[in-house]
Amino acid sequence: MDERAAAESTVEAVFREERGRLLASLVRRFGDLDLAEEVTSEAIEAALVHWPVDGVPARPGAWLMTTARRRAVDRLRRDQAYAARLAVLQVESDRADPAPPADALADLPDDRLQLFFTCTHPALADEDRAALTLRCLAGLTTPEVARAFLVPTATMAQRIVRAKKKIRQARIPFRVPGADELPDRLPGVLGVIYSIFTEGYAASSGPDLQRLDLAEEAIRLARILRRLLPAEREVAGLLALMLLIHARRDARTGPGGELVLLDDQDRSHWDRGAIEEGGALVVVALTGGPPGVYGVQAAIAALHDEAADVASTDWPQVVALYDLLLALAPSPVVALNRAVAVAMRDGPEAGLTLLDGLSGEPRLRGYHPYAVARADLLQRLGRFPEAAAAYRAALETVGTDAEREHLWRRLDEVERSG
Amino acid sequence: MKYMMLINAASTDPVANGCTPEDWMVYDKQVSEAGIFVSGESLADLTTATAVRVGPDGQRTVTDGPFAESREVLGGFYVIDVPNLDVALDWAARCPGARDGGSVVVRPIADFGE
User: Fold this and answer.
1) A123 to B1: CB separation less than 8 angstroms, yes or no
2) CB contact under 8 A, A171 and B1
3) Position with higher pLDDT, A342 vs A13
4) Which of A7, A59, A269, B82 could staple B87 via S-S, CB 3.0–4.6 A?
5) Are the C-beta atoms of residues A27 and A174 closer than 8 Å to each other?
6) Interface check A268 vs B, CB under 8 A
């Protein structure tokens, strides 16, 4: 990268947050994502030219907004047909959702919440929602989003075009759902952010166990959403969950990039700041109303993060939280995790009985954590040939190279013990 | 913005669908009172369907059917005029045809003025 490119990418990073805000405001004003994206980029390019020479303006947000708005008006003046179409859109969207009175004092009003709901709209395909959210709200470029999802840039560009086309043609609105719709719609927004986190964190395939960027982007998105919806406890719960898992990132891989399980992690490498912040958010998430799925999962993560080691972890409490989670969102995967916690509380035999009770679950067939958990408990019980068979079963379905190496080591261990 | 709601019933048996003719009358009234109704029909029984195909040589083929291989059968449609997809989805969710294994597919009407 030459010097100019380096300088530009620094400035781009500085603008990332501004980009989402600017884009959201322009979408509200013009009702069109393509136009808003185009003039957002142009305004940022103009800033890159003018600010180093003229100095950064006193109100940078307002400067960018004014510049972008002027470009949009120019564009609409040149293209009357486009303008006419947008005018119709605008009238109809006002009919549906009257705009709030303009706040002349704010440097830049924050319209990002409606963009969150549009980008994660349930009418869009799952994979497109995450891509669009990263593009429009995290301010990532299309090649960056493509790299994060390990797909060619052209493929990602097509996906984003397809999603934007559906927004435009099916007229998915730019609006914040009413209070009565929020319980229906918010889980979808949180689900997209969490899917970005898990995608980046436990990369499901490929050489890198962790793609830190995506996990951090997801945390950044959750922070933005938390500012926009401070009263929603599940937003706090999601942010807490991600912070508490991410706090262990440095201990999760060894010097050779190999996977280190929770039991064997050097807990002095855990990020205390993130654990503290996450722990405080767990309290927010679980106070003042019935618990939500993210809040409960965050509470479980907090119990792990706050324990000095595996033995002193509050396993009875972990089991109790899994019981709660099973009641809120029954799933074989949660039952699997609960069985592992029961094994820690009551011994491997009790855990194994529960795991064997789940053997008929179709969702756990080919799900390698199930085989790994069984293998581990069998190993602890000294049933080495069975443990070896379970490790082999896990190796057939495991995703990342680091996880595969870990399982080979465990298999080697039990074969030598047997 | 006009949307077509394609109403797919899980079964042609109205009782098995769990909604009564009264449910449909109530819904129909709601749609017309909201001022969003453009058009709408319910279709006669699927056994009355006839398919026509014309080959490259201009030869016409008429066949009985088609009888759905999938479990869902197009039973009727509405075209409504509403501001955006969220409003259209709300109307689809209220439609009796969306319940008990049925589904309502919402499709925007193409706008060639774009």
Assistant:
1) no
2) yes
3) A342
4) B82
5) yes
6) no
Q: How many domains is chain B partitioned into structurally?
A: 1
Do A218 and A197 form a contact (C-beta atoms < 8 A)?
A: yes
Interface residue of A79, A171, A176, A181 to substitute, partner B, most B CBs within 10 Å: A171
Would the pLDDT of A228 be above 80? yes
- Search chain A and give the residue with CA nearest B105: A123
Query: Mean pLDDT, to the nearest integer, of A264-287?
Result: 96
Question: What is the CATH number for B98?
Answer: 3.30.70.1060
Query: Domain boundary at A96, A120, A143, which?
Result: A96
Chain B: residue nearest A97 by CA?
B83
Per the domain annotation, does A296 fall within a domain? no
What residue spans of chain B are helical by DSSP H? 21-33, 85-94
Q: What is the SS3 assignment for B63? A: strand
pLDDT tens sequence across A137-193: 998 889 888 888 888 999 999 999 999 999 999 999 999 998 888 999 999 999 999
The interface pTM score, or ipTM, of the predicted complex is: 0.84
Q: Does A173 touch chain B (CB under 8 A)?
A: yes
Which residue range forms the structural domain that includes residue B101? 2-45+69-108
| B74 occurs within a structural domain | yes
Is the distance from CB of A20 to CB of A138 less than 8 angstroms?
yes
Which of A92, A93, A171 lies nearest to residue B108, judging by beta carbons? A171
Residue A172: its chain B contacts at CB < 8 A? 84-86
Q: How far apart are CA A250 and CA A243, in angstroms?
A: 13
Report the domain count for chain A: 2
Tell whether B55 is within 8 A of chain A (Cβ).
no
In a domain, A91, yes or no: yes
Q: Which two tokens stand for residue A363?
A: 């969702």
Q: Measuring CA to CA, how many Å separate B29 from each of A11, B33, B34, B35, B86?
A: 58, 6, 8, 10, 21
Rounded (5°) CA angle A233-A234-A240: 95
Number of A:B CB contacts under 8 A? 36
Please tell me the number of Cα atoms within 13 Å of A8 on its side-chain side.
10
pLDDT the model gives residue A99: 45
Assess if residue A102 is contained within a domain.
no
Among candidates A85, A171, A177 on the partner chain, residue whose Cβ is nearest the Cβ of B84: A171
Composition of chain B by helix, strand, coil, percent to 5: 25, 35, 40
Residue of B3, B81, B82, B85 best to disrupt the A interface, most CBs of A under 10 A: B85
Helix H or strand E encompassing B6: strand B2-9
* B108 contacts in chain A (CB < 8 Å): 169-171
Tell me which DSSP letter residue A268 carries: G
Say if A325 falls within a structural domain.
Answer: no
What domain range includes position A347? 340-418
